[in-house]
Amino acid sequence: MNTITESPGPEPIRFDTKIAVLLRADLEPWQRLNVTSFLVSGLGTQLPEVIGEPYEDADGVPYLPMFRQPVMVFEATKETLTAAHTRALTRALPRAVFTADLFATGNDRDNRAAVRAVPTADLDLVGLAVHGPKNAVDKVVKGARMHP
């Protein structure tokens, strides 16, 4: 559950949870954007508490709701990404994965089949998204650095 700490003044809203995306450092710029967008979409579908209220502009035009909290994006080596995946599994945190094989597929069915075909320990991870308590997520992404 996401606990929100609100203050009556201009203080920012603080969350006791964190959303983090970890990308493999050797990805091309277009791949980083593609992987990030796919990964965060998985979190939003399974964790409704991370989704805020819909937006509306001054003319009353509605817009879709988005995450209620920032998404922190990190980069790491393949080895650090693999270790982070293991830590996310050990902590049973909600997670989404993107493997290198998904760059060669063209649809959702083939994406899922590509992941399903590989044992956990052999996944060629290029991205991981996790959500959970701040301290647990911080431990998962240990060794990674903020995306430049």
Tell me briefly what this model is:
This protein is an alpha+beta fold.
Number of helices: 4
Q: How many strands, which pairing sense, and closed or not: the largest β-sheet?
A: 5 strands, mixed
Number of strands: 9
Strand content: 25-35%
Q: Kindly name the structural category.
A: alpha+beta
Mean pLDDT, nearest integer?
91
**Strand/helix succession:** EEEHEEEHEHEHE
Strand order, main sheet: write it out. 7-8-3-6-9
Separation of termini? 30 Å
What quaternary form is this? single chain
What Rg do the Cα atoms give? 16 Å
Overall geometry comes to globular
In the predicted model, the low-confidence regions spanning at least 5 consecutive residues are none
Helicity range: 25-40%
